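Bug report (template v2)

What were you trying to do?
Predict the complex of my protein with magnesium ion.

What happened?
Run completed; filing so the output is reviewed.

Input:
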Amino acid sequence: MASHNLKHALFCAIVTLIISYPILGFNLESQGIDVTLEGAETSTVLGVLLAAVIVFLFQLFRDNVMGSLRQLPAVNPLANRKPMEQSKRLKLESTLLTLMVIGALIWPFIASRGAVDLATLVLIYIMLALGLNVVVGLAGLLDLGYVAFYAVGAYTFALLSQYYGVSFWFALPIGALLAALFGLVLGFPVLRLRGDYLAIVTLGFGEIIRILLNNMTSLTGGPNGIGGIPDPTLFGMEFGRRVKEEGNTSFHETFGIAYSGEHKVIFLYLIALVLAVITAIAIRRLMRMPVGRAWEALREDEIAAKSLGLSRTAVKLSAFTIGAFFAGFAGTVFASKQGFISPESFVFLESAIILAIVVLGGMGSQMGVILAAIAVTILPELAREFSEYRMLIFGAAMVLMMVWRPQGLMPMRRIHIELKRQE
Amino acid sequence: MLEVQNLSMRFGGLLAVDQVSLDVQEHEIVAIIGPNGAGKTTVFNCMSGFYKPTGGKILFEGREIQGKPDYKISRLGLVRTFQHVRLFGRMTVVENLLVAQHRHLNTNLLAGILKTPNYREKEQKSLDRAAYWLDRVGLTELANREAGNLAYGQQRRLEIARCMVTEPKLLMLDEPAAGLNPAETKDLNQLIISLKEDYNVSVVLIEHDMSLVMDISDRINVINQGRPLASGTPDEIRRNDDVIKAYLGEA
Ligand SMILES: Nc1ncnc2c1ncn2[C@@H]1O[C@H](COP(=O)(O)OP(=O)(O)OP(=O)(O)O)[C@@H](O)[C@H]1O
Ligand SMILES: [Mg+2]
């Protein structure tokens, strides 16, 4: 056992060296037009060596370290507390949620413009994560190309507004429905696939959509993207300084207040908030309806589900379609918020982040997913100074989470169903 | 109501089921017995649409159903359990029963999201049916437990209840007594008889527990190495020389 550990630890340390030394230990220096390779400073080299030693020691005593890590949850003061009664918990939860929503409604009027803008992004991620939660968390279908539907929603709005001058409010349902249609169509070929195979194929789909957007230059502008996407209007009132469209009025003139760029930001935030709340409520209902149960049944045991008359086709496609629908929602809001979109915004990393949110939050759990979306979007902004190490911190956080709480921040809790007594 | 004619199923070079015929009348319990690996489960898999048989016909209420997709066969009222219990482990006991009734529910998404009165009424009905069957198999106290955490015998009963809430016409049970203690087997015995008597369900039963089979079956089919060996009433089977030889030869 010990010799096995030693060998393993040595191996890991060497791998660490092989991976990190070429990346960190050399610098490319440009002198005029020549590029030369130079060794990095001694401190960096020492750092790499130190890292290898740490890896070596960790792997050597891995069993002890992991063992003591596992003990930690017992330290958690909340761990041994009795679960609250169902009725009490529901009341508490709904009060908390109402307070949260009210707070979120008032908050933008006192917060800074940058903060409100960031919060809008958080809300977009919440919508995305809630939608992906249907596919991955409930139906158990590992979808790595989810960002494709987000892109469909965003590009639908961008293209419709560019070519036909369609407004945000018209584009919103169209974008969502078109994304849903894509979900349906892309769902067909992967009906028979599960697990890893499904993940690989959906990953491919995500990339195909992005590459298409990149290459259909005449339609989408390719890598240059599409700009000038209009902001949403409030009953025909625009939020710009000057009215762009014939027949519209401007918000600040109608109400006789001074123009401020903040109005628009706050308005977008409120739209995103309303849509996120709608998304959460709609999916919450779906989870408790026959479709929702069918998704979970398929995740739990496909064969048993079929033996009870559930059609695998219908159940899987409904999960893909509904998940994609909400991604389309989010995409439309995103396009409007940015005013400019390009394929750059829809790379695989986005899919990975949304998936990470779902996994961190706790598969299937709405509260968990919302909390994780907030954490994953806001933390990198707070830690701006470390922006170079963003992905590193992100990865470390994921690893730690998987060790401590593999079930996620707030694992899904089953609802308690009260039955009438039989007489 | 069910007629299996010359059913054959070949896996590559292995003829797992060879020219098996059997029939089930309404209001009848028919058993399929045979040594391990005889092909009993394979017959079930063909009947329930999990396998497409390589030969023969299966008629249910006069209609040919061989090769039909499994979920469609189940919707016709031909529902099965599994040799190794297959529950939706991380869903609660009630939810297991609700999933099974999705067909009785309105599938209109909007009606469900908006909770229309019609939808509520149907939802309530399926809850009542679930409650009824939980009571019937003695699992009411455990209604909100996760199904995966139940004891083995309870899981077996839940699986049968899950079939019954779909209101089947013919129930196929694959070794329902496997892993049960004698007391549980006795309860099961009564439950199966009551399914036939009180709920008018026909039952096809695969079972190794001979006393259970002899007790409750109206007729028995014996399969050996994929081929039909004998069929008849329990008394006839008990006296059949071929059957005795096959079982003694195995032991
Ligand atoms: N999918 C399959 N592919 C290949 N061979 C199979 C398959 N399913 C069953 N068999 C083979 O068919 C034969 C019959 O198996 P089956 O499971 O029907 O037996 P059984 O009568 O149910 O036995 P037991 O009493 O042990 O459950 C066995 O030899 C088995 O290995
Ligand atoms: Mg078997």
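What did the reviewer find?
Chain B is about 40% helix and 25% strand. Residues 117-136 of chain B form the longest helix (20 residues).
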